Amino acid sequence: MKKTLLALLLIVLVTASKAQKVDSMFVNLYTDSLKKGTFNYINVDGLMSNGTYRPLDSTYIIFKSDHGKFYGNSLWLDKDFKEEKVHISIALKKNIRNYREFDLYIKKKLDDENLKTSEQIINEMRGNSTRKKKS
Questions:
Q1: Count of structural domains within the chain
Q2: What whole-number distance in Å separates Cα of residue 104 and Cα of residue 68?
């Protein structure tokens, strides 16, 4: 039993000593604007000390904004939100001097676009293939 505990402690110590730290952070947004009335995922990647990249979440980062509310990496904006943009700041929990600040604008155009049905897409593809054969 003592040997097992000693081996486990040794493994934990070796693993902890090899733990990578975050050298820098990069914000990679899936969109160029935030949507009202929904969760907006803020994607942050960390450059680790071993040169690899790793996604960072709220276990590593403190998220703050001047509007809305963060739930993990996701910023919720109320559907009645009136401002033009949101100022966001992120900081590493273990080194708050490693931080980023940026503004994200609110999407203005409504999501009322009707997507094509499968049938419409297939018909378009058929129409394009017959035109290519004729020319």
A1: 1
A2: 12
> Domain of 63?
20-109
| Euclidean distance between CA atoms 105 and 107, whole angstroms | 7
Q: For residue 89, what are the contacts with CB-CB under 8 A and spacing of at least 6?
A: 63, 64, 65, 99, 100, 101
87-121 pLDDT tens trace? 999 999 988 888 999 999 998 887 777 888 999 99
| pTM, two decimal places | 0.66
Does 66 reside within a domain?
yes
Query: What is the CATH number for 71?
Result: 2.60.40.1930
Residue 52 lies in a domain: yes
Any domain includes 10: no
Q: Give the C-alpha separation, 75 to 41, whole Å.
A: 6
CB atoms within 10 A of CB 44: 22
SS3 letters across 83-106: CCEEEEEEEECCCCCCEEEEEEEE
Here the tokens at position 119 are: 């049938």
Positive or negative, the Cα torsion across 107, 46, 54, 74? negative
